[in-house]
Write a structure and sequence with these properties.
48% of the residues lie in helices and 9% in strands. The chain is built from 6 helices and 3 strands; from the N terminus they run ααβββαααα. Strands 1-3-2 form a 3-stranded mixed sheet. It is globular and about 55 Å long.
């Protein structure tokens, strides 16, 4: 019954979970973005400027995720996951797109990053061990994400529980 909460409910969520499970990722500490990107021929480099993706300049068939080196490690991790989402989900160059298409792609990449970095199927190991108040901070530490993002993800988790008829988290 409760297992329903952890199952994917959208196509994007399902695709991300399949990707994680294909790579044998079952625990938060196994979400190694550098290794994951390398398996998809994506090199991560640091730059002093706006993060972006582009074809690799020296390796045919490879791509680059260029990440602003001024970001703290937690924000850097989120940015890599976001840009990884763009590379796996989108084709073409964003500046050539109209505003609605850019907004849709950005929203989809944000959602991809959220599912990739905090998959619900990993929530079951702590879901009933921490209080509602403690959960966002605990999730942020466990999954190495910004606390504000962890809170949003946790709020969605709680909403899922309510929709399924579970009256309370604890």
């Amino acid at each position: 019954m409760v297992k329903e909460i952890y199952k994917p409910q959208t196509l994007l969520e399902s695709r991300v979970y399949k990707l994680l499970r294909y790579h044998g990722i079952n625990n938060p500490e196994e979400i190694d973005l550098e290794r994951l990107c390398a398996t998809y021929r994506i090199e991560i480099i640091d730059i002093n400027g706006r993060s972006c993706t582009h074809p690799h300049p020296r390796k045919f068939g490879w791509y680059v995720i260029a990440v602003d080196q001024r970001l703290d490690p937690i924000e850097r991790r989120l940015k890599i996951a976001h840009e990884f989402g763009h590379l796996l989900l989108h084709e073409g160059v964003q500046p050539d797109s109209n505003e609605l298409m850019i907004d849709w792609q950005e929203s989809q990449a944000n959602s991809f990053a959220e599912h990739l970095l905090m998959p619900y199927y990993m929530f079951d190991r702590f879901a009933y061990k921490v209080s509602l108040f403690e959960a966002p901070r605990y999730i942020a530490q466990l999954f190495q994400v910004p606390e504000q993002l962890a809170k949003r993800r946790f709020d969605r988790f709680i909403s899922r529980m309510y929709v399924r008829g579970y009256a309370h988290y604890i």
